[in-house]
Specification:
- Strands 1-2-3-4 form a 4-stranded antiparallel β-sheet.
- The longest helix is centred in the first third of the chain and has 20 residues.
- About 30% of the residues lie in helices and about 25% in strands.
- The N and C termini lie far apart (about 100 Å).
Length: about 110
């Protein structure tokens, strides 16, 4: 039995606040280092910095053909002026990019007649 002379708290009720504060500070430090850290692994392998890409604003269209639903989608990124067409591959059970267009390059292209 616990006697009044035994003043140490039981193991389950010890105060772990200082330990948790130090642990959270370490996790925040790791998050900052990873987020603001230098090169990514892919750009470090090639020796050049990966290009900075703006966050996109996407529109998704589901075209229908005369044959019915083809399982394809068109994704347009209006910020980066890009368009990609994707189709569902039933055998691989994955989306496959069937075409890609850089809309800025298309708009500035000199089309001859």
């Amino acid at each position: 039995m616990n006697s009044p002379a035994d003043s140490s708290p039981p193991a389950a009720s010890r105060d772990h606040t200082p330990l948790l504060v130090v642990l959270n500070a370490a996790l925040v430090l790791i998050l900052v280092v990873v987020t603001l850290g230098g090169q990514t692994r892919a750009s470090a392998q090639t020796g050049r910095q990966a290009p900075i890409r703006a966050h996109g604003e996407y529109s998704v269209l589901a075209p229908k053909s005369a044959g019915g639903n083809t399982g394809s989608v068109v994704i347009i990124d209006s910020v980066n002026s890009e368009m990609a067409c994707l189709e569902w591959d039933k055998t691989r059970r994955a989306l496959v990019v069937t075409s890609y267009r850089d809309l800025t390059a298309d708009a500035t292209e000199n089309i001859g007649r």
